[in-house]
Amino acid sequence: MSHVRLLVTVGKTPVPIEYTLSRIAGENAGNIYVYAILSEESQQTLYNVLAEAIRRYGDRFNVKQFIVEDPEDIEECLRVCSEAVMELLDDVRESGVQDVSRENIVVNYTGGTKPMSAALVAVVLNRLPHANLVYIGGKRDERGIVVSGLEKVVQENVLPISALFKAKEHYENFNINYAYILIKEAAERYGSQYYMALSGFLESLALRDIYDFKEACNVLNRFKRPFKLYTDRVIFPEDVVKFFTKASESVDLVNSIYYSLKQLRRLKEARNSEQSKSIIKPFSRNRGLVRGLEYLIAEVLLNIERRILTGELLIACVSTYRLYELLTQYRLIVKYGLSPTYVDWSEIPSDFIREYNIDTSEVKHLNLQTSFNLLNYYGDELVDALDSDLLRKLQFERNNSLIEHGFSEVDREVVENAIKDINGACRRVISGFDIMLDKLKFPKLTDEVLFCVRA
Question: Which among 51, 64, 49, 61 is positioned nearest to 25, based on CA atoms?
Fold first, then answer.
């Protein structure tokens, strides 16, 4: 038997709660859990309505009362309504239900004072986005009271509106996956192709945020046509067009990154320098593959900036060190056709090998320091563009961090300065790097984008 949980504000007029209980009891055969928010003066109203409901529908009403000392005080009303909602959530958990969205929750805010109604709606929008809001209206007499027998139920599922606000909040705090889940849920409830396309783009951003470019490509390719649809300036507002233009452009960008990575990942299977050369030489001569690697560098930089903004300094520090390495690898691959894996030492000047006392029979891979030294030997402009002191400071922070070899916290200033250093270096060695960053930046999720369909 299905049960219902009813959150209700109770005033001196019995009609709203009486009508709601009658409707719920008639449509549901299970128990009805009532969380009544009321003043002491309204307790008699609740008792009378419950007595009649029990007489008509049997003793299946479980009631909890939450008394508002001053029903005209909005702060007091908010406190009591929050207490009632928390009690409801505790009861749901104790019943063994893990997902509160599966509960049938009805919120009737008709009775009581206006502060009581406003407070209940505010708390429910924040804590119970899956609830059903119910208001009892209808034809009113000269005193403004709904005429008995002419009641009208106005019902609205809270989820779409509250979920959209929540999604925006998550998105702005770079909790992209949470934003995606909420938008997708709203899309399914609305049956909206617009929100489905919006959720598709957010899903791709969430996947990019964890460097899952393969799945991001799959999602973007699936929504390629819908993205294009919402770039029509004749039909859609400017913010919507800008947002989906970015989404549409990201299809080719992310595909480019993934395809370049797919080629470079073959180095993992290489077992000697000949095999690694057979991968790197064609790669370095293919402008499309090189551009994909450049976009990857821009993508990693933006990812690190997001980590800094969200205070994930440990991840930002390790990622920044990797970005230094990635940048040196990019130069060795693209400009010199050298593989960082199973390096062909016959292609590297013997003077360099002797100067750094490298045992070529033992060293198979170029680490960051060796790569940096080699670029310095070649007189590569990347070495001049980077601050070697900053790199050493970052390496010190990384080595002494908990995720590497030590126990220390990461110095935020060192990471921020290092990422600025890399940013400047990229502008010098990668053509059009500013434009690449702009193309890859996550677009702003404005209210115009969020509420386009509802408007």
Answer: 61
Question: Could you tell me the two tokens for 347?
Answer: 């292609």
Rounded distance, CA 54 to CA 47, Å?
Answer: 11
Tokens read off for 316: 């930002």
* Interval 340-349: pLDDT, tens: 999 999 999 9
Bridge-based pairing of strands 146-157 and 132-140 is antiparallel
- Closest by CA position to 136, among listed 111, 163, 106, 113: 111
Fold (topology level) of 4-157: Rossmann fold (3.40.50)
For residue 72 the two structure tokens come to 């005209």
Residue type present at position 37: I
- d(C-alpha 168, C-alpha 176), whole Å: 9
- Judge contact between 20 and 136, C-beta under 8 A: yes
Cα dihedral across residues 351, 354, 360, 366: positive or negative: negative
Measured from the Cβ of residue 317, the count of other Cβ atoms closer than 10 Å reads 28
Handedness of CA 108, 111, 112, 115 (dihedral sign): positive
Question: What is the C-alpha separation between 19 and 26, in angstroms, rounded?
Answer: 11
**Cβ partners under 8 Å of residue 161, min gap 6:** 125, 454
How far, in Å, CA of 32 to CA of 54, rounded? 11
Mean pLDDT (whole number) for 141-151: 47
Q: How many CA atoms lie within 13 A of 443 on its CB side?
A: 23
**Alpha helix (H) ranges present in 337-409?**
350-355, 368-378, 381-385, 388-399
- Residue 425: pLDDT band by 50, 70, 90 thresholds? very high
Identify whether the C-beta of residue 123 lies closer than 8 Å to the C-beta of residue 76: no
Q: Is pLDDT at 404 greater than 90 in this prediction?
A: no
What's the rounded Cα separation, in Å, for the pair 182 and 114? 30
Q: Which residue has the tokens 């606000």?
A: 165
Six token digits for residue 445: 């999720």
At a CB cut-off of 8 Å and minimum separation 6, what does 387 contact? 421
Amino acid identity, residue 321?
Answer: Y
Three-state DSSP class for residue 292: helix
How many other CB atoms are found less than 10 A from the CB of residue 325? Answer: 17
Q: Where are the domains of the chain?
A: 4-157, 159-455
pLDDT: which is higher, 162 or 206: 206
Q: Say how far residue 425 (Cα) sits from the centre of its chain.
A: 30
| pTM of model > 0.70 | yes
Residue whose C-alpha is closest to residue 66's, from 123, 131, 145: 123
Which residue type is seen at 338? L
At 348 the three-state DSSP class reads coil
